[in-house]
Design goal:
With 268 residues, the chain is mainly beta. It folds into two domains: 99 residues, Sandwich (Immunoglobulin-like), CATH 2.60.40.1120; 106 residues, Sandwich (Immunoglobulin-like). It contains two helices and 23 strands. A five-stranded mixed sheet has the order 11-17-16-13-14, with no helix packed on it. Strand 9 and strand 10 form a beta hairpin.
């Protein structure tokens, strides 16, 4: 019996150490990429484009100011189109490589969400977990509206569940919330969709894909994308849209080569 208990304990310890080692290996490592390749293509849309949400601004706060948004129609109605398609191609889809642990350096940039004319820009982007020792300048939220209180509320979303990451009032134009520290809570396999909303004006929304390496792109107004400086190899590449879904396919990148790859996302 003692031998059996010892064998079981040894097995558990071995598994724990192996799991820990794998977790360490999974962390992304920056390196110089020589003769890197690229993945380019389009995100095709299949199905009927959902109609816009017709937001009645008169029922919310700061109705007169919010009606200055350029999309506002007669009677203070503002159409909000969450799925934008042009010539059969989907805009604002995030394309990302899932299984790459070594490659180019992260871009030295701040992702800023502008709260402007009772809207949020960009509508779709990417965010990442704050690296160890980084406490600011990774993700910020800025109020661009004079004498209008905005209250950005950030969530990690999984299905119908939401986990609050931050909730910070911005009283007027020029107010900035640096939310970098709040993004330390992201965990691989648990967090993938970041959602931002204004608690004062809940029709103000933006979305982001949580990424774990710098190999990503967001499809432009023509529905096209490019990911560059990719080491040669075979990768799982995903195209994701917060209100359409996602699809993953395998893509092979040669040294210095260009892999032409299209994705098709369909409304459910």
């Amino acid at each position: 019996m003692k031998n059996l208990k010892w064998a079981l304990l040894t097995g558990v310890l071995t598994l724990a150490l192996t799991t820990h080692a794998f977790a360490k290996q999974a962390k992304y490592e920056e390196m110089e990429v020589k003769n890197g390749g690229s993945i380019s293509g389009s995100v095709l849309f299949k199905g009927e484009v959902p109609p816009p949400i017709m937001e009645d601004l008169s029922k919310g706060k700061n109705a007169e100011f919010c009606a200055t948004h350029p999309d506002t129609k007669e009677g203070g109605i503002r159409p909000r189109q969450k799925v934008q398609v042009k010539d059969g191609k989907l805009q604002n889809a995030v394309i990302l490589i899932e299984n790459i642990n070594k490659g180019k350096a992260w871009a030295n940039e701040t992702i800023n969400f502008d709260f402007n004319q009772c809207d949020i820009f960009p509508k779709v982007t990417v965010v990442r977990k704050a690296p160890k020792g980084v406490k600011k300048d990774l993700v910020t939220v800025t109020n661009q509206d004079d004498n209008i209180l905005h209250n950005p509320h950030g969530y990690s979303v999984k299905g119908a569940n939401r986990k609050t990451l931050f909730n910070k009032p911005l009283p007027s134009k020029g107010s900035v919330a640096d939310v970098t520290k709040s993004l330390k809570r992201f965990k691989p396999k648990k967090d993938s969709h970041f959602f931002l909303q204004c608690d004062q004006h809940n029709f103000m929304e933006a979305d982001a894909r949580i990424v774990w390496n710098p190999y990503y792109s967001v499809s432009n107004d023509k529905g096209t994308f490019t990911i560059q400086d990719i080491p040669a190899g075979k990768y799982k590449v995903t195209a994701w849209h917060p209100y359409v879904g996602q699809v993953t396919q395998e893509v092979t990148v040669a040294d210095g080569g260009k892999a032409d790859t299209n994705f098709e996302l369909a409304m459910k």
